[in-house]
Design goal:
single chain; alpha+beta; six-stranded mixed beta sheet; five-stranded mixed beta sheet; 9 helices; 13 strands
């Protein structure tokens, strides 16, 4: 039986090896032949999502048999430990299925239902791996950049699906932000957060997130010194992630 306490170092080393195996599956399948269909909620899923999640679950339970697991594609597994894993086997399934390399494998660890460690891997984008515990950032395959731009016309704002924002209660707030003149792109999902973490973008706005979409990446975001503005008070389903110095400017726009 594995000891109960898990350090960040143990999490980092385990998830680095774990997601490396997942990356092999993704890269073998990328631009290849696989099945895909729409789930009951209308979102896309592929046979690769299922294959990777099964691998993640199997490896986690081999190492931590009493842990709980919450995954994107399969039913929750309730264990006897206070620890629980949150998995998104292919975050950015539409990108993956369209031959766009901006997708990733997300793995996070909770203790007493609070996320404590997180990680992401970008299989088709230099096989980047990054992990964090809220203060320590461990990155492999990319360099961190210092980003300093003079005004909004030089800033980069990202989202996953702009139409989702335009059709939401934040549509007017979104227009106000765009009127400041930033470059707006939809390189979203975990790749968008990676661009902020690595110092290549300034703001990421995401709505209608599920737990597995965002929880595994929150500790990494915090480790990079980024700020999270919750647009829904009770959870992280609607959020803005930004460089720290922009929080004061964004808060009044979206909190009206």
């Amino acid at each position: 039986m594995h000891k109960e306490e898990i350090s960040f170092l143990e999490f980092r080393d385990f998830t680095q090896a774990l997601t490396s195996k997942a990356s092999e599956i993704a890269n073998e399948s990328f631009n290849g032949s696989y099945k895909f269909w729409n789930k009951e909620d209308g979102t896309l899923v592929t046979s690769v999502d299922l294959q990777i999640e099964r691998l993640l679950r199997e490896e986690i339970l081999n190492q931590y048999p009493d842990h709980s697991i919450h995954g994107e594609e399969e039913e929750n597994r309730i264990g006897t430990s206070q620890y629980g894993w949150i998995l998104d086997p292919v975050d950015g399934t539409i990108n993956f299925s369209s031959g766009i390399p901006f997708y990733g494998v997300l793995v996070g660890l909770c203790y007493k239902e609070k996320i404590i460690y997180g990680s992401y891997r970008l299989p088709s984008y230099n096989d980047i791996f990054c992990a964090g515990d809220g203060s320590t950032l461990s990155n492999i395959g990319f360099s961190l950049k210092e980003r300093s731009v003079p005004d909004w016309k030089s800033r980069i704002v990202l989202t996953t699906d702009e139409s989702r924002i335009q059709n939401s209660r934040f549509s007017n707030h979104w227009k106000e932000l765009k009127n400041l003149g930033p470059t707006v792109r939809t390189w979203g999902d975990c790749f968008g957060y990676h661009l902020l973490i690595s110092g290549n973008a300034d703001v990421m706005i995401d709505l209608s997130l599920k737990l597995c979409d965002i929880a595994p990446i929150l500790p990494v975001i915090e480790s990079a010194g980024l700020k999270v503005i919750k647009l829904s008070p009770d959870n992280f389903s609607d959020i803005i992630v930004c460089r720290a110095e922009l929080e004061r400017e964004l808060y009044p726009i979206f909190k009206k």
